[in-house]
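Researcher: Next entry in the queue.
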Amino acid sequence: MARPHIIVIAGPTTSGKSARALKLARRVRGEIVSADSRQVYRGLDIGTAKPNKKEQHAVPHHCIDIATPKKTLTVIEYQKIALRAVKKILAKGKTPIVVGGTGFYIDAILYDTAFPDVPPNAAQRGKLEKLSVAKLFVVLKKLDPERAKDIDAKNPRRLVRAIEIAKALGHVPTLTKTPRFDAKIILLDPPKATLQKNIARRTTRMLRAGLLDEVRKLVRTRIPRARILELGFEYKYPLLYLERQISKDEMIKKINTENWRYAKRQMTWFKKAF
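Model: Structure for this entry, 274 residues:
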């Protein structure tokens, strides 16, 4: 039996995925399924470069604004919602276009993968989240050297989750991947200089659009400080600026530098995966 056909547009931050997806969706009667680990949260609009209302009206979007930012949406939870959206789009005779830079989210859609059934451990996470990424990596390496070989060693959330699983199961199991769909992969890979310029321009646009007010709103709605800090560079450094821990110039430099480093990690992951 032939697998359903879908399209995937992947790439690093600011590589033009959203614009490419909108253009393609109009041409092939497609609907967009976001594979962005932060656009799933309500209230995170400017800092995640979420498609605006006009864009969402022009082409139906799925998996946006489906969770509260107060707690982490797990990959398993995302997978269930995203697969329902893909099936709904296919049932209408349209083409699902999966768009995003979160590799685990894309994998969760593309493959029939059995994720470890280990629930989050709040007490354990509280202790681990106080450690630096370097110390987290050391902890994981002692628990599971094999998992440490291929994990994103700069991603604290991935490290904490891997440690959580390793402590519960003794190791992080290797995930078997069985394709669900006949997927056409479009991987955007702009030159380094282009990405760096795009990142800087986007930071400027976000600040002009009211990024600081968006962060203030998160604080007013009682999102825990620790949670805001882990929602991404566009939230962490503006919060530190508002707390007068860093200057405005330092905030901008940090956002741009960290996003460039993240873009490089994304491309390393995608080139290995695709």
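Model: The beta strands are 5-10, 30-34, 61-62, 95-100, 182-187.
Researcher: Noted, moving on.
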